[in-house]
């Protein structure tokens, strides 16, 4: 695509937005470029009035250019055709009109982008019904004629039982027409639904569609507009026969036809959005090949199986043209089985497919999903090479052979997964990192404590076992399954962590401390994932081990107690949580000193428990002290300092010191914004902690709402 | 007129000088045609630029076709612009004693129909060319040589879709420019 100038890019992007969203977009896109913004705003303002400014008037012979020797021979329609544009709309287009002396129009059967299709009676040389396509009057004659010519030539090249034949063509009163085999058929999707065909029957019907398209491809013709209404099923001797019709936007690859089929005026987008391939969804869709049809076939199969195309027209209708194109180009469609399982109409879709809902989604999963998704790859080099290749894989599925399509490779999937789920991946990586640290820490600890002669050997063995355990957590943890099979990644992780925890009970590491450390890490991870009950079990064990092996005043032991307190608090075991936090606060104050950051964290945890116990008045002094000390230790803009401040501000409101609370809240908010940026969770937390906006609840929620605790 | 044919062939083969030499020849021919036409028409009648360009083509080259025709149209569009705008300037100078009247707002849509409008458009197009030279060329081809979007696209060596987008952009830019000049 020819590169856009900045003004062009910004203008078209802004024009595609609803007017209300434009100022914000322009402010963003033209930051520091007032001149650019001015130009674009001026143009947007002119849009409603521009009308046909500078456009050649349709009635003057502006299209007399058709008189010029054309670069390619379009002599069939030649100069006379130029006058076709001035033809009055609809002339000769009514029932009873006789075209070219032998086709009597009977009734209109379709209205296409560039003409109407009529059922007509042919009188000579044989009497039969045919379909006559008449070019719409009043369209840009050159463009339409070129396309029409392309269509005629393209169709003439093809001879296949599944492609509607072209019988005749020419000019009638300066208007081009052509005559096609009349297909008495219904769209393939409709046929399948009415007959309640099973997925297998649908697949069997789909294969000849691919073969028809393959035939066209071999003749150098790309259909470019494959969709259900162009793929008809007609009954011949009660047997369903596929008939692909309307190569209306067909383009012969590499032939002289190329030039004639690309210009559809502004936008130049040819095709039907739901069936349009990503490479077609650009403003410069010259670069289309047979694989674009493979994509559209994929959409067709998708719809046959799942009941609607991957991007339904209802979804797309809400969007502007540019947005539609972006979706087609960039958004990963859901798999057919996923689409189906989330469809409201699943029961009726299943009924139409003569299959139980559950069975149906199960049937689509795996191979059929893969086959369809392979055809729908954004990158066409990853699609089936040919329509036949696509058909062959469908046939392999039908005959129970292994299909060529397969879930994308691990690396590829991982890449796509990361693109889709940045947040989740970051979280998972953190867990992984924590576990890795666990192993390193474990081995380090081992190395230090094991003074025996077999030290090296034991270390190697334990390392191997830790790694084995770690591997069991991540083994076949397929990110790609996250949305399709095993539920959210969070759930999968939790399950694996639990399994690892069970494994640990058998003491596979041979060293209680190493086991304790793994339990501790698994406990913290599960707590972070929201599985507090599992966390309580693990953290209690870890605490016991640490206290026994390392003493109650050991830092690891105190960490375990603190997290155990958090886990109990999450489970609303208020008394136990308060006791644990008071305990760890006392220990840390004694061991680390009252000003140590860890002590201050505990002090705030304890204060939180007091607030839950309806004692906010007791909590406030603890928090005030903690705030002062933490400010002294880490500075005013430290995230934890800001957290204490916003929690305190909120609590002050609750104990009747509203003014102070408001003041502290405003100050904290300003600091958070300046230090962390407006979108940082802490800033948002600070904003929502303003006493004015936050009604006091005696039980502040743990993970959301006004009260926030430090994250584990 | 074998000169023009030869120059076009050379230009098509990539000879820049040939393309440059083409302009005066095309300009001369167009100017002669335009003068004859203007003398024959009633005053106030606007020239049909498209018809003139095509007539010039037939006179200079005949009805043969070859690759170089794009260069002809590029030159013809530029020549035609000069001829029309020069003529318009002369007319406005005579009519207003040198004081040019700005086209009123409601006449922008018919800017090409009056000498004043044409001069305004020419000036706006020059300003447009300073920021968007390719798109200004497209306007020249469309407006002064009567080419269709697809034909102009071929001359500019871009896809028809790109040309269509440019055309939309150019129309709005120029319209806004003329409107805001009021």
Q: Which sequence of strands runs across the widest sheet of chain A?
A: 1-2-3-4-6-5
User: Largest chain-chain contact?
Assistant: A-B, 48 and 47 residues
Compute the average pLDDT of chain B.
75
How would you describe the shape of chain A? elongated
CATH topology tier name of the largest domain in chain A: Transferase(Phosphotransferase), domain 1
The number of helical segments of chain A is: 28
% residues in beta strands of chain A: 5-15%
Which term fits the overall shape of chain B? globular
Radius of gyration of chain B: 17 Å
Number of extended strands of chain B: 0
Taking all residues together, what is the mean pLDDT of chain A?
Answer: 73
Distance between the termini of chain A: 50 Å
Continuous helix count of chain B = 8
Task: Work out the number of β strands of chain A.
Answer: 11
Structural class of chain B: mainly alpha
Task: Note the main sheet of chain A.
Answer: 6 strands, antiparallel
How would you describe this structure to a colleague?
The complex is a heterodimer of chains A (712) and B (182). Chain A has 712 residues and is α+β, with helices and mostly antiparallel strands. Chain A folds into 5 domains: 6-45, no CATH class; 62-181, Phosphorylase Kinase, domain 1 (2-Layer Sandwich); 186-407, Transferase(Phosphotransferase) domain 1 (Transferase(Phosphotransferase), domain 1, Orthogonal Bundle), CATH 1.10.510; 408-572, no CATH class; 583-712, Tetratricopeptide repeat domain (Serine Threonine Protein Phosphatase 5, Tetratricopeptide repeat). Chain A is 54% helix and 8% strand. In chain A, a hairpin with a 3-residue loop joins strand 1 (98-99) and strand 2 (103-111). Chain B is mainly α and 182 residues long. Chain B is 75% helix and 0% strand. Chain B is globular, with a radius of gyration of 17 Å. Chain B starts with a helix and ends with a helix. The mean pLDDT of chain B is 75. At the A-B interface, helix 1 and helix 3 of A face helix 3, helix 6, helix 7 and helix 8 of B.
């Amino acid at each position: 695509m020819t590169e856009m100038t900045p003004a062009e890019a910004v203008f078209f992007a802004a024009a595609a937005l609803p007017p209300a969203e434009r100022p914000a977009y322009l402010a963003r896109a033209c930051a520091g470029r007032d001149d650019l913004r001015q130009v674009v705003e001026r143009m947007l303002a002119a849009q409603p009035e521009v009308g046909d400014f500078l456009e050649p008037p349709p009635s003057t012979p502006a299209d007399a250019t058709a008189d010029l020797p054309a670069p390619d021979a379009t002599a069939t329609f030649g100069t006379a055709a130029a006058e076709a544009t001035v033809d009055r709309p609809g002339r000769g287009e009514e029932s009873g009109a006789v075209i070219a002396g032998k086709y009597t129009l009977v009734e209109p059967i379709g209205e296409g982008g560039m003409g109407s299709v009529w059922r007509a009676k042919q009188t000579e040389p044989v009497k039969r019904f045919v379909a006559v396509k008449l070019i719409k009057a009043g369209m840009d004659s050159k463009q339409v004629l070129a396309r029409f010519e392309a269509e005629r030539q393209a169709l003439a090249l093809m001879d296949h039982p599944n492609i509607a034949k072209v019988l005749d063509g020419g000019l009638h009163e300066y208007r081009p027409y052509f005559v096609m085999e009349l297909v008495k058929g219904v769209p393939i999707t409709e046929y399948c639904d009415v007959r309640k065909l099973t997925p297998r029957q649908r697949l069997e019907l789909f294969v000849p569609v691919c073969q028809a398209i393959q035939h066209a491809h071999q003749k150098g013709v790309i259909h470019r507009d494959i969709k259900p209404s162009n793929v008809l099923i007609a009954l011949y001797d009660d047997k369903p026969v596929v008939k692909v019709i309307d190569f209306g936007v067909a383009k012969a690859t590499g032939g002289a036809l190329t030039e004639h089929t690309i210009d559809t005026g502004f936008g130049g987008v040819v095709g039907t959005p739901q069936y349009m391939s990503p490479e077609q969804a650009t403003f410069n869709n010259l670069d289309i090949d047979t694989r674009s049809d493979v994509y559209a076939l994929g959409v067709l199969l998708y719809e046959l199986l799942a009941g609607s195309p991957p991007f339904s027209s209802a979804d797309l209708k809400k969007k502007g043209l540019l947005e539609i194109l972006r979706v087609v180009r960039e958004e990963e469609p859901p798999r057919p089985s996923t689409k189906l399982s989330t469809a409201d109409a699943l029961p009726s879709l299943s009924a139409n497919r003569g299959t139980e809902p559950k069975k149906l989604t199960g049937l689509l999963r795996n191979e059929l999903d893969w086959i369809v998704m392979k055809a729908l790859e954004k990158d066409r080099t990853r699609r089936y090479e040919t329509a036949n290749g696509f058909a062959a894989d469908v046939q392999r599925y039908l005959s129970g052979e292994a299909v060529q399509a397969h879930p994308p490779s691990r690396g590829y999937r991982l890449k796509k997964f990361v693109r889709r789920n940045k947040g989740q991946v970051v979280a998972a990586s953190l867990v992984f990192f924590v576990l890795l640290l666990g192993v390193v820490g474990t081995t380090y600890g081992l190395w230090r404590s094991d003074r025996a002669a077999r030290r090296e050997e034991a270390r190697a063995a334990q390392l191997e076992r830790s790694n084995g355990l770690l591997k069991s957590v991540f083994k076949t943890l397929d990110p790609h399954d996250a949305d399709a099979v095993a539920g959210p990644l969070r759930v999968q992780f939790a399950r694996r962590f639990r399994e690892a925890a069970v494994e640990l009970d058998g003491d596979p590491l041979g060293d209680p401390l190493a086991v304790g450390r793994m339990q501790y890490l698994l406990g913290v991870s599960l707590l972070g994932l929201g599985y507090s009950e599992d966390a309580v079990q693990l953290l209690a064990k870890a605490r016991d081990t640490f206290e026994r092996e390392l003493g109650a005043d050991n830092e690891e032991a105190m960490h375990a107690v603190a997290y155990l307190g958090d886990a109990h608090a999450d489970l609303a075991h208020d008394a136990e949580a308060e006791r644990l936090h008071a305990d760890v606060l006392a220990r840390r104050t004694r061991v680390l000193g009252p000003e140590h950051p860890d002590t201050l964290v505990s002090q705030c945890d304890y204060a939180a428990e007091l607030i839950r116990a309806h004692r906010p008045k007791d909590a406030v002094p603890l928090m005030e002290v903690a705030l002062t000390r933490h400010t002294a230790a880490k500075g005013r803009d430290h995230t934890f300092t800001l957290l204490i401040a916003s929690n305190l501000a909120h609590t002050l409101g609750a104990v009747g010191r509203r003014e102070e609370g408001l003041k502290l809240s405003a100050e904290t908010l300003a600091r958070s914004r300046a230090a962390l940026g407006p979108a940082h969770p802490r800033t948002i937390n600070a904003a929502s902690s303003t006493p004015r906006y936050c009604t006091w609840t005696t039980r502040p929620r743990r993970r959301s709402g006004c009260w926030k605790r430090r994250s584990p | 007129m074998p000169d023009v044919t030869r120059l076009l062939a050379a230009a098509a083969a990539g000879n820049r000088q040939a393309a440059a030499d083409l302009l005066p020849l095309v300009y001369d021919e167009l100017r002669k045609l335009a003068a004859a036409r203007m003398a024959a028409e009633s005053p106030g009648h606007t020239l049909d630029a498209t018809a003139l360009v095509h007539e010039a083509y037939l006179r200079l080259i005949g009805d043969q076709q070859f690759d170089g025709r794009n260069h002809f149209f590029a030159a013809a569009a530029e020549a035609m612009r000069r001829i029309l705008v020069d003529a318009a300037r002369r007319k406005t100078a005579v009519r207003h004693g040198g004081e040019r009247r700005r086209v009123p707002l409601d006449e922008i849509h018919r800017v090409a129909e009056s000498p004043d409008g044409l001069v305004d458009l020419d000036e706006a197009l020059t300003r447009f060319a300073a920021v968007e030279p390719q798109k200004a060329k497209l306007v020249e081809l469309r407006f002064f040589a009567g080419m269709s979007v697809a034909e102009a696209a071929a001359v500019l060596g871009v896809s028809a879709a790109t040309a269509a987008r440019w055309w939309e952009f150019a129309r709005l830019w120029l319209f806004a420019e003329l409107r805001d000049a009021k």
